[in-house]
Amino acid sequence: MQVVEESGMRMDGGEAPVTSSTYESVRQLASSNAVVVFSMSGCCMCHVVKSLLFGLGVGPTIVELDHHKAGREMQAVLFQLAGGRKQAVPAVFVGGKFLGGIETVMACHINGTLIPLLKEAGALWL
């Protein structure tokens, strides 16, 4: 497991602009790791996704947005990727592609498609 944290993020409640460099940072993280979870450290649904992946034997790269200096901007990018839904985290990328949030990950797990996706991405070998 790799945790990406860069302290210094503003927590003043202001709206964060989505810049091309922020979008590129998210894309780079997602494409250079088999599984990436964008999370908030106190989010229970984020904990559920991380626990599921750990339980399956996956060591995802975890980006705790509330501890990352560009976390608010990254969250705005994830909000757009999630189709403007209220909940932008957890946001899970598998094999460089946006899989979705808690509902999508759990649905894939229940219907049996999650493990093949993880194997295809190189996150699982068995």
From TrEMBL:
Primary location class: cytoplasm
Pfam families: Glutaredoxin
PROSITE patterns: GLUTAREDOXIN_2
CDD domains registered for this protein in UniProt: GRX_GRXh_1_2_like (cd03419)
Subcellular location: Cytoplasm
Gene Ontology CC terms, in alphabetical order: cytoplasm
Keyword set, alphabetical order: Cytoplasm, Redox-active center
Glutaredoxin domain span: 35-98
Coiled coil regions in record: none
Family: Belongs to the glutaredoxin family. CC-type subfamily.
Protein name: Glutaredoxin domain-containing protein
Organism (species): Liquidambar formosana (Formosan gum)
